[in-house]
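[Automated response] Your request has been received and processed.

Submitted sequence:
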Amino acid sequence: MTKRSKSYTADAKKVPEEALELPAGVAVLKSFDGGKFDQTVEVHMRLGIDPKQADQIVRGSVVLPHGIGRSQRVVVFAKGDKADEALAAGADEVGQEELAKKIKDGWTDFDACIASPDMMGLVGPLGRILGPRGLMPSPRAGTVTPDVANVVKEYKAGKVEFRNDSGGNVHAMVGKMSFENDKLVENIQSFVDHIIGMKPNSLKGAYLRGVSICATMTPGVSIST
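Generated structure:
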């Protein structure tokens, strides 16, 4: 049994049993004891998909209107003009063979990995390292692209990737506890709307089963949809 802190236990008593409208839910979340650091706010969505069916995978990325409250570290596999454009757009590291070797040796200190299509022969073998960490570039996520500069800018502006887990749930960071209430509401609503718009055509029955929000060290708050 997980032992909870006094502040967590006190916060849990503030959580209503019923699901709340999003603005009210954010207000409850913001009333929690923030501790000594600016906690990350997350949204968790329970979906009625079958994760074992390839045509029901919910995966992609979305740019949140107010970012996520921190600068994301972005690496890019590109060469020539594409490499120069990626650096100019704010990429933290751009490379080819040397970057691949660095990752093979265990370096994964970044939040997003982008590759131009001609680099996938080099990037492909890194899948066993990047895949489990959710960092493997893919066309579906928009991280394999000829327009590397624009995608770098999107991640720097607050783009987040998502992919359902084995239980059919989708999770994402959507800001910080220090955000103003209305900005958190807009970020969360933007993410939820995006996921709702990705309902697989093959799905039978209810798609959205539940939504909750929480911060790094707080209880969850159920949100009505």
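Summary generated for your ticket: Helices lie at 6-12, 22-30, 80-89, 97-104, 120-123, 127-130, 148-157, 181-196. The CA atoms of residues 8 and 224 lie 23 Å apart.
If you did not submit this request, please reply to this message.
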